[in-house]
Amino acid sequence: MVDGWGSLPAVVRQAAGRHLGTVDSVSAVPGGQNNDLAAVFHTRDGAVFVKAVRGISRRMRWLRNEITAGTLAPGIAPAVIFAEDVEVDSDPWLVVGFQYLPGRPADLSPGSADLAIVGQTLDRISALPAPGIRGLHDRWSVRDWWRRLPDVAPHAVTGFDVDQMDQWASLAPQAVQGDRLVHTDLHADQFIVGAGGEVHVIDWGFPGAAAGWVDPAFLVIRLIDAGHTPHDAEEWAAARPGWPTDSAALTAFAALVAGLWTYREAVEGAGGPWVRAARNYAAWHVGRSD
């Protein structure tokens, strides 16, 4: 990640400057590993959150997805103030300025007052269409994560019937098919709760088209990680519109997500306590206690 505004190539700074005007100060944003720059720019006209990515890559595609989300989820995703492609010594850059959203992460713990406003925000998202967005069922073309796990994380499959989990996971792509906009990476830090109780959702790098219940199902796993039982977390999600009455769809979803996240944690190191929560949710759905 580039260390500050002054370290950016002049062409990139000039591109941002054309849109921002005079920049008084820049505050780096921690946790911006997917960007070469993630910072709040304080200008005479107010604050703007700026992200920049160098080079054609998955990271650039994810940033372009965030631009798209700004148009598909107005009032929920941060508004896009500017976006510009520039080239530095034949190296492409994408520089994007987003609406700056001051606030705090949501509290997903049991009994939190935030659970109501988070639920209302999910309801708003589930009503949105996803024109031109790749279907989650297509992204989930690989389904045999459980069969791969004994070779890379044998401890993670202890007590699970790998064949059974693979069979359930194979049903997930069909189960999640739909035409609603889904974020697919919701957790507490993705909800920004403003001083007046307004809620926005950030970091739309992995949007998909799917059934409207998919984002609430992803959040069930985060609720379990936050201290809810699987039963209570799912009972909360069941209040969302379109929640499946067929538990098989949820079992398939839980099996695929648990297998996928566990595999990525083992191979890429991309994980955390929520991965265990995903396995607990899958285990609960197939009737195994962990």
Q: Could you explain the architecture of this structure?
A:
The chain has 290 residues and is of the alpha+beta class. The protein has 2 domains: 5-99, 2-Layer Sandwich (Phosphorylase Kinase, domain 1); 104-285, Alpha-Beta Complex (Aminoglycoside 3'-phosphotransferase, Chain: A, domain 2), CATH 3.90.1200.10. 41% of the residues lie in helices and 19% in strands. The chain has helices spanning 10-20, 58-72, 114-126, 136-139, 145-152, 162-170, 172-175, 214-225, 230-237, 247-268, 273-285; strands at 23-28, 37-43, 46-54, 80-88, 91-99, 104-105, 180-182, 191-193, 199-201, 208-210. The strands form 3 sheets. Strands 1-2-3-5-4 form a 5-stranded antiparallel sheet, sandwiched between helices. α5 (145-152) packs parallel to α10. The longest helix is centred in the last third of the chain and has 22 residues, at 247-268. The two termini are 40 Å apart.
Overall average residue pLDDT: 92
Structural class: alpha+beta
Order of strands, widest sheet: 1-2-3-5-4
Helix fraction by DSSP (H/I, runs of at least 4): 40-55%
Which H/E pattern describes the elements? HEEEHEEEHHHHHEEEEHHHH
Query: Could you name the CATH homologous superfamily of the largest domain?
Result: Aminoglycoside phosphotransferase (APH), C-terminal lobe
The gist of it:
The chain has 290 residues and is of the alpha+beta class. It has eleven helices and ten strands.
